[in-house]
Structures are given as structure tokens and as C-alpha cells.
Write a structure and sequence with these properties.
The complex is a heterodimer of chains A (114) and B (113). Chain A contains no helices and eleven strands. The chains are: A mainly beta (114), B mainly beta (113). Chains A and B meet through strand 4, strand 5 and strand 10 of A and strand 4, strand 5, strand 9 and strand 10 of B.
Chain lengths: 114, 113
């Protein structure tokens, strides 16, 4: 069974530019989460999809971040315009509906904003 | 929001030694999980705990869900070089609450040969 995949693995952009991150969850996992780890701190929640619906986006830092999950399959997270403080590692995780606690993480996208 | 206090922040141990790390919270969690992250990779799920008092093993790893539901510990026995990495605890609130995981700040483990 393929795991969670994320693209790209690294992205270096200038302040003010736009970046779109992609996550492909494990097939059949309706729950999809985005998390972020900044500057060696703890991993923090951004938002949660159940299928194509946003269940909880309380962790999104501001309106420069936009997440979508069209069709309930893969998800994208767009940052526009990027700021220096957006640098960090963005993780995607997925889980089955009845095993919500067991979340499986992708390798992450390391975003550097210069 | 919820916060998990994970300790120690880092550990340097000799190969073959046992390791213990723990997490505490002011909130009650319904699920405790332990993850390991290696450089360039995402966190990998090691153990999931669902019941207060539960003690679960996965090879040389043993984790327990505290009776108060506000803490958990992870033990690694007879450490080997490939145990190197960052270990994170994570908690999930009871059903009816938000479903995301709250993470501890991680324990960086270094195993010396």
C-alpha cells in the first residue's frame, strides 16, 4: 500500500511569491490533515478535511493560506503571497474515518522563503 | 489551545542502554501516539494507545497511556544506532472535539557506539 506522498520535497521562493504544495493521501483515507513545523518547534495543526469538506481550519495562520481538496482525493495548500515567517516543513497526514487517531504522515515539503 | 510538555528535550546514550521519555498535558486525551522522525522524512507512527492504563509494546519499544489520561511514556530497551531520531508524543482529544493531533516538542535521541 502506497503511503502519503507530498510534492515538492523542497521549495525555495522569494517573499511575495506564490507556492502550491500538494498532498496525495493513502487511498481510501477520508481524513486529510495539514501540519507545519517551524524552526525546530513542535508540529502544529493547520487544517482538517473530511473527504472534500473542510472540517476544521482553526490552525490556518491567516488568509494568505488556502487549502483545497477537490473530489476528496489529493489536496493542495497554496501560500500567496509568501512571507519569511512561512518558512518551515509542511506535513500532510491521512487517516481512516474510524481510526482518526492513527494518522500517517507524508515526508513533508520544506519551504524556504527568502 | 492544548499543550504537551515532552521531556527530555535531548538524550545522549550509549548503545545498549535503555531510554525513557514522557509527555504530560493539562488536558485529557482520548488517544496517545508516539512517532519517530528521521532526517528528511515525515513522522512515522510507532505506537497508538487508546485506553487509560494501556501498556503496548512494539518490539523493543513500550508505551503506556497514563491512568489520568493526561500523560504517556515511551521506553526503548537495548538501544541500537538506528534508534537515532526525534521522538514525538501526540494526543487526540475525545470524540466530539477537534480531531487533530497535538504534538509535544520532541526528544532528540543520539545513540553513541
Amino acid at each position: 500500500e502506497a503511503g502519503v506522498t507530498q510534492f515538492p520535497s523542497h521549495s525555495v521562493i522569494e517573499k511575495g511569491q506564490t507556492v502550491t504544495l500538494r498532498c496525495d493521501p493513502i487511498s481510501g483515507h477520508d481524513n486529510l490533515y495539514w501540519y507545519r513545523r517551524v524552526m525546530g518547534k513542535e508540529i502544529k495543526f493547520l487544517l482538517h478535511f473530511v473527504k472534500e469538506s473542510k472540517q476544521d481550519e482553526s490552525g490556518m495562520p491567516n488568509n494568505r493560506f488556502l487549502a483545497e481538496r477537490t473530489g476528496g482525493t489529493y489536496s493542495t495548500l497554496k501560500v500567496q503571497p509568501a512571507e519569511l515567517e512561512d518558512s518551515g516543513v509542511y506535513f500532510c497526514a491521512s487517516s481512516q474515518v474510524d481510526r482518526g487517531g492513527e494518522q500517517y504522515f507524508g515526508p513533508g515539503t520544506r519551504l524556504t522563503v527568502t | 489551545g492544548q499543550q504537551l510538555n515532552q521531556s527530555p528535550q535531548s538524550m545522549f546514550i550509549q548503545e545498549g542502554e535503555d531510554v525513557s521519555m514522557n509527555c504530560t498535558s493539562s488536558s485529557i486525551f482520548n488517544t496517545w501516539l508516539w512517532y519517530k522522525q528521521e532526517p528528511g522524512e515525515g513522522p512515522v507512527l510507532l505506537i497508538a494507545l487508546y485506553k487509560a492504563g494501556e501498556l503496548t509494546s512494539n518490539g523493543r519499544l513500550t508505551a503506556q497511556f497514563g491512568i489520568t489520561r493526561k500523560d504517556s511514556f515511551l521506553n526503548i530497551s537495548a538501544s541500537i544506532p538506528s534508534d537515532v531520531g526525534i521522538y514525538f508524543c501526540a494526543g487526540q482529544l475525545p470524540p466530539g472535539s477537534a480531531r487533530q493531533l497535538t504534538f509535544g516538542s520532541g526528544t532528540q535521541l543520539t545513540v553513541l557506539p
